[in-house]
Amino acid sequence: MLACSLVATVLFASGAGQAYAQAPESEEPRWSIAIHGGAGTLDRNAMTPERREGYEVALQQALDAGAAILAEGGSAMDAVKAAIVPMEDNPLFNAGRGAVFTWDGVNELDASIMDGRDRSAGAVTGVTTIRNPILLADAVRTESPHVFLMGEGAEEFAATQEIETAPPEWFATDARREALERMKADQLSALDVDHKFGTVGAVALDMEGNLAAGTSTGGMTGKRWGRIGDAPVIGAGTYADNRSCAVSATGWGEYFIRVGVAQEICTRLRSRAELLELLAVGIGQHPVVEQAEAQSSADAVMAEVAELGGDGGVILVTPEGHALYSFNTSGMYRGRATSEGLNEVAIFAEE
Ligand code: ASP
After folding, report:
1. Domains along the sequence of the chain with CATH
2. Which residues have a catalytic role annotated?
3. Which of 1, 24, 134, 254 gets the most CB atoms within 10 Å of its CB?
C-alpha cells in the first residue's frame, strides 16, 4: 500500500546552513493526521451516551481543524497546533483548561512541539498562566535560542511574545478538584483517582512531505516536588523527524521517559528505512516502510513500556502517510484522517 512514496534519507544543507531531512518524494502528494486526547482505563459503564458524544464531537473538531489545514496545502506544524489548541481549551481533556491539579492545588501545564524538517523543538513545563501552552512551546522553538523553558522564566518569555494568558480559574474545573480531594482523603495514587491520562497530542504529515508532532498536558493528579512527566520531554512524549515518523504519547510519564518512547519508535523506523534503501540500491526499487512494519515498531516500544510496568499509548504518522495508534490500555481517545479518505474518531480499544 502507498507504494508510490520514495523515502529519501539524504541530508541537504539549506541556504541558512541548517541541515534539513529531504521530504519524501511522492507521485501524488498526500497528507495525514492523528490526534489523541489521552489513554487509560476507560469504563464503559461510566460512558453515558451524552459523555461519549461530548468526546466524539471534541475529537472530531480537533481532527477537522488539523485536516482542513493539510487538505489546503498547509504545513504539518500548523495542523498540529490547530488540532491541539481546541483540545487545550476543552475542559474534557487534561491540558490547558481542565488540567489536573498538583498536590498543592495548582494547574501546572507542560507542552512540547517538534518540526520533522530540521528537528527544531520547543517545550515548556510548569506554566500556570498560559492559555495554550502548545503555542508557547512553539514560540520557544522559533523565537528563542533554547528548547526547554520552565515555570516563571517560561512565563517571562511568553510576555515578550504576546502569548495569551488566562487567570487560574480558567484552568480549574470541579471534576479535577474533586479527583485531587479524593486522592488526598483516601490516600490514593494518581492512577486510582484518575487512571485515564487526558493529555492531548497531534502528529501530521503535510503535502510537502514534512512531519510534525506536539503534546500538551496538565500531568498527573497530585503531582508534587516539581514532578515533570514525558509530555514536554523531547524524545519521550514528542518526537518528529522527516526521515522516520512523528510521535505523540500519553500515559504514565515516568515509564515513557525511561524508554524514550517517541524517539525510540522513530529510531527504529529510520533504521528500517535505511536498511531498505541499502537493499534497494542497484535494483531500481523505491524503499517504503510498510504500514505493518511501522505498526509493529510502535507496538514493540509500547511492549517495553508494559514490561517495565507502565501503560499508555502513542499516535504516529510516517513519511508514507500511515496514521497509526498503539496503546496497551482499555481505551484511548483518538482520531485520524488522511488524504486517502480515512476519517475516524474512536475511544475504546476494540473500536
Ligand atoms: N503522560 C502524562 C504525564 O505523565 C500524563 C498523560 O498522558 O495524561 O504527565
Report:
1. 2-121+167-348 (3.60.20.30)
2. 199
3. 134
